From TrEMBL:
This is Membrane protein. It comes from Portibacter lacus.
């Protein structure tokens, strides 16, 4: 069955450029990801870059995760842990909110910026199958892959009154290696066939988004500040199909194990290739009931049938994911009960991934739980965000994964960036 890898251990990662990483940071993972429309003044939302303009404080965020999974083919099981650094993100408003509040001239425009580095996809698997042939006897097929891709992006957003628009631009890069070989156990006088692909991926990528924030009872709130606020956000994000380029080393060898002879059949080194990543679209809505509760949905679609890779010819299917989630915080202003200031989160999701096994598209179903713990660091409000995900992947296919994932995110805020000090 599958052997452990450092950052992933999934047979499903053998398709395309590997298992894709979500752009939801730990704060958003707690309710499954409402990235199309959720905004928060202290946390960065990289899924929809339009959200940067709603930041009221500079934020530095990092996240780590660990995942436990059980992979089964009906007869064999493999259990294992793996973990990784998930992301490094920096975001800030381009005008300090303290200066803005003291400015006698109220401005309708607001701007924000973000920089981040995170994994985009991961490849990690080691699969062995043993078969028998009446002439050749027992032989073993080995399939192994490792590596992945990363993306480094820079984003900007502009907000005018209740409407905001933003875009991320950046660079995709990484290295992926696939190996296959056949080993004949019963006949040492046969050739062992080996096939390897090692390619470096690179390309420029982008995405964009929009958010409209509707303060439903704004007039009533301006008359009476004790009125509980009601806000509805609607958002959309996406990107067009975009190209990537690769430099590939492809080798095919036959190894005569009894005489340690190797016959190189193909050795193409430094071959240039190219591929196409799909167009993607997401949209959703989030409703805020004062500072107590939030509820929303998010839908995203990926046209993975457009995926092309000149070095590996594969057919994938269009993917989609639906998330429903929300959070509840008993009392954000409580001074004598810390647990009332914690935001408790929940979410459910169902998705169809691009991979196909035996003409069955891979599904992923599960629940999310999370919490956001506020604390003060150097007299500034900051947060520890915990998210838990439990799911089943590959139902109805020859391979099934049951997994649990925990993510910890650390957010440090500073409201003194770009502040203009005045002296009398």
């Amino acid at each position: 069955m599958a052997g452990a890898q450092q950052v992933d251990n999934s047979p499903f990662s053998s398709f395309g450029i590997g298992n894709l990483h979500s752009d939801d940071l730990a704060f958003y993972q707690g309710f499954g990801g409402l990235g199309a429309s959720y905004i928060d003044p202290f946390h960065i939302n990289i899924k929809n870059p339009a959200s940067y303009a709603f930041l009221n404080s500079a934020a530095y965020e990092m996240g780590v995760s660990a995942r436990y999974q059980q992979t089964s083919d009906g007869e064999n099981k493999n259990l294992g842990w793996h973990g990784n650094l998930d992301y490094l993100v920096l975001g800030f408003p381009l005008r300090n909110p303290i200066n803005a509040s003291l400015d006698p001239i109220k401005r309708d425009w607001k701007f924000g910026m973000s920089l981040f580095l995170k994994p985009h996809s991961t490849v990690g698997y080691n699969i062995s199958t043993i078969q028998n042939d009446s002439n050749l006897g027992s032989y073993q097929n080995n399939f192994e892959g490792y590596g992945g891709t990363y993306k480094m992006m820079w984003g900007n957003a502009a907000k005018y009154k209740s409407f905001s628009f933003g875009a991320n631009v950046g660079y995709l890069f990484g290295n992926i290696n696939f190996n296959e070989n056949i080993y004949f156990e019963d006949d040492i006088y046969t050739f062992e066939n080996r096939y390897a692909i090692d390619y470096n991926v690179n390309g420029f990528i982008w995405d964009a988004g929009m958010i409209y924030s509707w303060f439903i009872n704004k007039d009533a709130y301006e008359k009476d500040k004790s009125v509980k606020t009601k806000v509805l956000n609607i958002g959309v994000y996406g990107n067009s199909a975009q190209k990537f380029y690769s430099i590939n080393d492809v080798t095919k060898e036959s190894l005569y194990t009894s005489l340690t002879l190797t016959d190189t059949l193909v050795s193409d080194l430094g071959v240039k290739g190219e591929g196409t990543l799909p167009a993607e679209l997401g949209f959703g809505a989030t409703y805020y009931g004062d500072n107590k509760y939030v509820i929303g949905f998010n839908y995203e679609y990926g046209a993975w049938s457009q995926y092309r890779n000149s070095v590996r010819n594969e057919t994938l299917m269009d993917s989609w994911k639906l998330t429903l989630g929300g959070s509840y915080r008993p009392d954000v202003k409580s001074f004598n009960n810390y647990f009332k200031r914690i935001a408790y989160k929940f979410g459910v999701f169902y998705q169809k991934d691009p991979q196909v096994i035996d003409n069955i598209q891979i599904t992923d179903t599960g629940i999310n739980l999370g919490a956001s713990f506020p604390f003060y660091y150097q007299r500034k409000i900051s947060h520890i965000n915990a998210a838990f995900r439990f799911g089943v992947k590959g139902t109805g296919t020859p391979i099934q994964e049951r997994y649990g994932k925990v993510t910890l995110g650390f957010t440090f805020n500073d409201d003194q960036w770009f502040i203009k000090r005045k002296y009398n």
